[in-house]
Specification:
Elements lengths: L3 E5 L7 H9 L4 E4 L8 E5 L2 E5 L11 E4 L4 E2 L1 H13 L9 E4 L3 E2 L2 H14 L11 H9 L12 H21 L7 H15 L3 E2 L1 H10 L4 E4 L25 H4 L10 E7 L2 E3 L12 H9 L12 E3 L1 E2 H11 L3 E5 L9 E10 L2 E3 L6 H6 L1 E8 L16 H14 L3 E5 L7 E3 L7
Parallel strand pairs: 1-10, 1-11, 2-5, 2-10, 5-7, 6-8, 7-9, 11-15, 14-16, 15-19
Antiparallel strand pairs: 3-4, 12-13, 16-17, 16-18, 19-20
Bound molecules: guanosine-5'-diphosphate, 6-O-phosphoryl inosine monophosphate and magnesium ion.
Guanosine-5'-diphosphate binds next to α1 and β3.
């Protein structure tokens, strides 16, 4: 089995896009299987920077991209993204991009509801991207969602809109937000239909054929294990399962096809939205990590919260996410720090924990316990081989491996595609 699934092992923005782009040279197909355009993946290739949200990162390498059934697709955002990357010289056509006919659509009412709810939550807001992800997944599970295939059936669309609006307009009204008019939505969707339908197909057929032909499939996760709706810091999570097991259900392949699971973690920790963050640094070092790591949300533009590497959390992500190897990114951001800390446990209401418990109050009360390591004075920036790393940086990586109970199989040392140290090729596992 030569397939690979890439998932985030922290709270997102670990550098999945860079790693997927780098690995895509070894793959035939790149598949997105969950999330939506809440994701923001930045790829730096020479003097070009690509910012992808919904498009699989393999498209930059000219590889076939597939948007699986587990993804929630905002058709207008998708077309805008295609126009944007086309202007940068990429080719996105039905030959290079296929979308699952059974993927759920995000409609304008979903983002309206997402924003209205966040506003109503006030201080207790989740800090969502406001892109309608949660409400779209809710409709999917409630069996009233409009799917890509419905665009081909005007009567189905019309009937489903009646049901959707009965639900959503009631809610929106209750929240004091503007309501939606059926005819407007229907004509908008009918206008989108001829633009979206050429990309639609039963992608499971194509993936099954690829699998049987021995093609290499790369599954591209979005968000991360600590944002997983089951395993993350609930309720401060996204609305999909982000663990590697979702790669199967979210694309229409069996679990045995997922292959090697590569988790991506930064050499420190960041988080965009609200919620617990035991190793957060509200001091000059946190500021420095944010400045050096250029920690601004690709989607939200918000400054990311920064802190020390949390080995307890990543170990947990390794276990529940099914991670077999870790790609450690942004090691260069730690260059020159005299002292580094790694979280090895939590103290919660007087008791010691080696995992993050599920209860919201306990998570909020978690105080990180650290071990301290010496930093390094040399530079790791741009290193492409183990031999280019200062001895102390190697020690730091080795200690992380021990604590998270997974081997580091890849190290990234700058945003640039080729500034990567390959320890073990995940496609050869
Ligand atoms: P993703 O959501 O996991 O794909 O990550 P994002 O693209 O949202 O955020 C990661 C950011 O870090 C991007 O701006 C990348 O260009 C950048 N990046 C990735 N790897 C490295 C690295 O090894 N070093 C540095 N300095 N930046 C990196
Ligand atoms: P990538 O793929 C970081 C966070 C939001 C918020 C929570 C819920 O780039 O790593 P949502 O809009 O999904 O309902 O928001 O999840 N979030 C992300 N944080 N990276 C992402 O994606 C994220 N996608 C969602 O900030 O806290
Ligand atoms: Mg991102």
């Amino acid at each position: 089995m030569a397939n690979v699934a890439v998932i985030g092992a922290q709270w997102g923005d670990e550098g999945k896009g860079k790693v997927v782009d780098w690995l895509a040279s070894r793959a035939d197909i790149v598949v997105r299987f969950q999330g939506g355009h809440n994701a923001g993946h930045t790829l730096v290739v020479g003097d070009q920077t690509y910012k992808l949200s919904l498009l699989p990162s393999g498209l930059v390498r000219g590889k076939l991209g597939i948007i699986g059934n587990g993804v929630v697709v905002d058709p207008e955002a998708l077309l805008a993204e295609i126009a944007r990357v086309t202007a940068q010289g990429l080719t996105v056509t039905p030959e290079t991009l296929r979308i699952a006919e059974n993927a759920v659509l995000i409609l304008p009412l979903h983002s309206a509801l997402d924003r209205a709810r966040e506003e109503a939550r006030g201080e207790r807001k989740i800090g969502t991207t406001g892109r309608g992800i949660g409400p779209a997944y809710e409709d999917k599970v409630a069996r009233r969602a409009i799917r890509v295939c419905d665009l081909a059936e005007p009567q189905t669309l019309s009937d489903k809109l009646d049901e959707l609006l009965l639900h959503h307009n009631t809610l929106l009204q209750g929240l004091g937000a503007a309501i939606f008019v059926k005819e407007d939505l229907l004509s908008r969707l009918l206008a989108l239909a001829p633009l979206i339908l050429p990309f639609a197909e039963p992608v499971w057929e194509r993936l099954d054929a690829a699998r049987r032909a021995g093609k290499r499939i790369l599954f591209e996760g979005a968000q991360a294990v600590m944002l997983d709706v089951d395993h993350g810091t609930y309720p401060f999570v996204t609305s999909s399962n982000t663990v590697a097991a979702t790669a199967a259900a979210g694309s229409g392949l069996g679990p045995a096809s997922v292959g090697t699971v590569l988790g991506i973690a930064k050499a420190y920790t960041t988080r965009v939205g609200s919620g617990p963050f035991p190793t957060e640094l509200n001091d000059a070092i946190g500021q420095l990590l944010g400045d050096r790591g250029y920690e601004f949300g690709t989607v939200t533009g918000r400054r990311r919260r920064c802190g020390w590497f949390d080995a307890v959390m990543v170990r947990q992500a390794v276990k529940v996410g099914g991670i077999q190897g870790l790609a450690l990114t942004k090691l260069d951001v730690l260059d020159g720090l005299t002292e580094l800390k790694i979280c090895t446990g939590y103290r919660i209401n007087g008791a010691h924990f080696r995992h993050l418990p599920a209860a919201q109050g306990a998570q909020a009360a978690a105080i990180a316990e650290y071990e301290t390591m010496e930093g390094w004075s040399g530079s790791t920036r741009g290193a492409r081989s183990w031999a280019d790393l200062p001895a102390q940086a190697i020690k730091y990586v080795r200690r992380i491996e021990e604590l998270v109970e997974a081997p580091v199989t890849l190290v990234s040392t700058s945003p640039e595609r080729d500034d990567t140290i390959l320890v073990k090729d995940p496609f050869e596992s």
